[in-house]
Amino acid sequence: MKALLVVGAGAIAATAYAGSPADHAIIAAMKLADQPNYSWTTSVTDDVRSYDIEGKTTRGDWTWLRLLMVKSIAERMGRDAGTDTEAIFRGSEAFVIQTSEGWKTLQELRQRASPPRPTGGRGGTSGNPHAPFTPGAGIMIPLSGPASRRGYSNAQFALSRPHEELAVIVSSHTELKVEGDRATGTLSDLGAQLLLVHAGQDGIEPVAAAGEFDELIIRGGIVTRYRLRLEGILLVGRKRIIVRQASDTVIKQVGSTSFEVPEEVRQKLEG
Q1: Pairing of strands 49-58, 62-68
Q2: What is residue 74's predicted lDDT score, i.e. its pLDDT?
Q3: What is the pTM of this model?
Q4: φ, ψ at 47 (rounded to 5°)
Q5: 3 state SS of 260
Q6: How many other C-beta atoms can be found within 10 angstroms of the C-beta atom of residue 98?
Q7: 187-233: pLDDT as tens digits
Q8: pLDDT (tens digit, 9 = 90+) per residue, 227-255?
Q9: Alpha-carbon distance 146 to 135, whole Å?
Q10: 104 near 73, Cβ under 8 Å?
Q11: Residue ranges of the domains in the chain?
Q12: Category of 180 on φ-ψ map: left (φ > 0), alpha (ψ -120 to 50) or beta
């Protein structure tokens, strides 16, 4: 589904008219994709937990990522599973995961009989998973049919780099307001779905979604921070579940980010 909104920088730039604040905000968002490298941190809060994502991406399509351990990976790692996962991606789908036995592809991670240790985000799961979602004011989309309001965490093992998310934002916004160096706006249903469920998620399908972005901050002609609030209905297995999450992404070390790709990783992902 993500391919539906793959928009090149040149294509968007061609639609930018002469110098309105909104045009400058769109171009600033696009410019991140042209940078040789950058780092970022994302703090996420959903109905169940809060957690952080750290990332570094460089030319050559290499990305290092540290993110919350999810059940599908923990089951394969067994007792080696911790509270987070360190991974290196080549492109958006080929990756290896750090284990006690070195870097392993998903296929190399054997299914283990021993149960994994409990995994939780920063602060673990909340004491009341049905408590109101504090970052937002409630579901923004109409419900058609029953949907479960049980506590559900939308944490996913997936690579979603800021320049890719910004491309979705600028190509799917339905409203965009700019005041000084800050932009806010709303997202289309499709744009919110693309940001809510990342590519490669088996058993999770978005049914409907809505979203807002704010604190999209521009410094030196490039976006350095943005916040998202997403709400939607997902089909998880055969159940329709309401999911709500807020995220805050800070982009840093643009042009000065680097990390070493071990030779064993190159052999696994370049072969």
Answers
A1: antiparallel
A2: 85
A3: 0.81
A4: -70, -15
A5: coil
A6: 18
A7: 999 999 999 998 777 788 899 999 999 999 999 999 999 999 999 99
A8: 999 999 998 888 899 999 999 999 999 99
A9: 24
A10: no
A11: 18-125+139-270
A12: left
Beta bridge partners of 65: 55, 87
Query: What CATH number has the domain spanning 18-125+139-270?
Result: 2.50.20
Tell me the one-letter amino acid at 141. I
Is residue 192 classed exposed, middle or buried when 0-12, 13-18 and 19+ CB atoms within 10 A define those classes?
buried
Percent of the chain exceeding pLDDT 90 equals: 54
**Count of alpha carbons within 13 Å of 28, Cβ hemisphere only?**
23
Q: Which residues contact 137 (CB under 8 A, 6 or more apart)?
A: none
Q: Which helix (H) or strand (E) holds 73?
A: helix 71-77
Distance CA 159, CA 162 (A): 10
Is 51:68 a contact under the CB 8 Å cutoff?
yes
- Give 17's DSSP letter: -
User: Residue 140: its pLDDT value, please?
Assistant: 56
DSSP 216-228: EEEETTEEEEEEE
